[in-house]
Amino acid sequence: MTKKARKNDQSNMKQTLTLVAALVIAAASFGKAQSTERKQLFDFDWLFSLDSISWQRVDLPHDWSIEGAFDREAPAGNDGAYLPTGKGWYRKEFTIEDSSKKRGNQRTGLTLTDKKLRLYFEGVYMNAEVFVNGQRAGGHPYGYSSFFVDITPFVRTGENTVEVRVDNSHQKNCRWYSGSGIYRHVWLMTTGKRYIDEWSVSVTTPDIHTVNIKAEVVQEDGSRRPITKTLDIEHPRLWSPDDPYLYETLLEADGDVLPVSYGIRTIDYSAEKGLLLNGKPVVLNGGCIHHDNGIMGAAAYDDAEYRRVRLMKEAGFNAVRTSHNPPSETFLRACDELGLLVVDEAFDGWREKKNDYDYSTLIDHWWQEDISAMVLRDRNHPSIFCWSIGNEVIERKKIEVVKTAHQMATLCRKLDDQQRPVTSALCAWDSDWDIYDPLAAEHDIVGYNYMIHKSESDHERVPSRVMMQTESYPRDAWKCYRKVTDYSYIIGDFVWTAIDYLGESGIGRWYYTGDVPGEHWERPLFPWHAAYCGDIDLTGLRKPISHYRSMLYNEDKEQLYMAVREPDGYNGQVKTTLWGTWPTFESWTWPGHEGKTIEVETYSRYPKVRLYLNDKLIDEKDVAEHKALFSLPYQPGVLRADGVVDGEGKESVVLQTANETKSIRLTADKTSLKADGQDLAFITIELLDANGVLNPTASNELEATVKGPATIVAFGNADIKDNDCYTDNTHKAWKGRALLVVKSTRKQGAITVTVRSKGLEQGTVRL
């Protein structure tokens, strides 16, 4: 785990013996997806079809788009990663046994008498319709909202069938890769006719020693009865990104028991003091993310969601913006447990379309329900410090936009008893920035997309305005860092983006003379099918910009780093784009460039850096803006950078030239998997020379095999032009690396994963 600890709150609070005993029963419901008597995972043994004729067995979460081939003519186009969309059907059979039937002394299966049965869909993209035994039971159009379906009136004793129709055929409806299908968990909720409404639970802390919990019990006639619980905490341990400490308790009413997890922390903000967490100033080193899991597509497996948060933490981030939609519940749970502050965002746009079938087609009928779904579902997460109601809305110059913002912000404040601030991301592509003041005034914190250069004049005009840069260019890391550290009214920066993602194809790329030119929005850029603007690539590798950004914001972490700029003309004349940085890699392997000038970038918290090549001093330079840059003729060997204080070397980093590739090394992020059909292992593949040095020029064709109770989920690399399918068992390496993801089945046994390539010593890992 992390420094986060869990603590059963009865040690600090007065609890009845009945409640303490019940805690043991319900404890399994905390953390990642686990079934309890009340909430059973409904992910397994579905049938799926794109044509209602041929059916395949699938488990959830499932994204059918990622299983398809990249196609320049795909209707979702560059926004949707050139992957297929369309319509699909899911079908699952389940049994409800008569309550009078017993097997031995045990009742078997589900019983219908005096029960309320609901299906809880965490996310279906999109236009979901749910049918039970042939009758429509419910659904939801917005693909990022969670929703419940009451199936009690439609089920019967014996065999039952649930079907879900998913329609993602109206394209384009999203500006990034959405995926298609039931891409998040489904749960069967079984309670009595009277039950605690999960989304009615609200946890507030009027002071750090008092926890107030309120909820509503749904009565048999549909009315609601309020219940409350107050807990006194003598010595509270406050939640923060550095100490993400969670408490747990239980709510009990009318025989229903509901576990509640919460954190205790205070949030305050002002133009004078900035952002205060638990009374202490905090600067947001944030990253934006989309919801996909890279080569896995949109499928929101728990391990993949936790991994994204872990990658961000390891990269030095302390905050995340869920652009531009609510994330999975698991992602927020991971932020709670691992420690990331969250801007939880509802929508990309409002009434004026960015694409023909985007949220503009739904807003008039569904915005209240979708805002409510976000706030009610998520309001007890201590990681969330801010709600976002939109992003770069097109109609921002119309007076009607102020009314829309007011309505949405008012609803957020009404539903959230914690009264978190409300923001949205504002931008302009012209000189009319000042006219957005009435719109900005509807926000508690004003989000600036690429507009933070307006901050000083805005502050003079509106001194009380609190700002944060909700999107920034990666290349502007130093300028943005200085903004948030020099001005108290700017509380943080969120780079676009933290992690590379599918869709919005070509954003952040570099290209060469002769390639299709220009920015990603100007024209289709096939075969580019993903974004390269992230600090972290599709395989989870931190790019040089990530090390630099972390060094700016984190004094106690990384102190020295070195990478090498690709020589201009080495593979062609380099052209960078707005969200891109110069192609720079941890590589001292540049065959054919011997004797020619090459540039080395070092990032350092030391005042000076010395550079050595094959133990010969090349130069010593002062560090400015946490950088020292060197130019030298390329020569194979060992490149070493030393951080220097008062003439003495304190720390070294090394890059070594690789020789011919000889072997494959596999490194798994865990050594064992749970036999639950959901657990994942992320296996990094590296191509090494005889000395164990990674060869960054290797692009060998790789073949993966898995023996034992596990299957391949995804196989790919970080090259956003490589259009090999991510679900095959073969893929090329890129820059000497690839990533393989395997999933457990529900059987126990040893698992052996092997990756082979012609002429190389194979790599093997056992789980």
Layout of helices and strands, plus pairs?
Blueprint: E1 6-8, H1 17-26, E2 39-41, E3 46-49, E4 56-58, E5 86-96, E6 102-103, E7 106-107, E8 115-121, E9 128-132, E10 135-140, E11 147-150, E12 158-168, E13 186-192, E14 195-196, E15 202-207, E16 210-218, E17 224-232, E18 246-253, E19 256-262, E20 267-270, E21 274-277, E22 280-281, E23 284-289, H2 302-314, E24 319-322, H3 329-338, E25 341-345, H4 363-378, E26 384-391, H5 400-415, E27 422-426, H6 437-440, E28 446-449, H7 455-461, E29 467-472, H8 477-486, E30 490-495, E31 510-512, H9 544-553, E32 560-565, E33 574-576, E34 584-585, E35 597-604, E36 608-613, E37 616-622, E38 627-633, E39 638-645, E40 648-656, E41 661-668, E42 680-689, E43 701-707, E44 710-716, E45 730-732, E46 737-744, E47 752-756, E48 763-766
Parallel strand pairs: 1-18, 23-24, 23-30, 24-25, 25-26, 26-27, 27-28, 28-29, 29-30
Antiparallel strand pairs: 2-13, 3-4, 3-5, 5-12, 6-7, 8-11, 8-13, 9-10, 9-12, 14-16, 15-16, 16-17, 18-19, 20-21, 21-22, 31-33, 32-34, 32-35, 35-38, 36-37, 36-39, 39-40, 41-42, 42-46, 43-45, 43-47, 44-46, 47-48
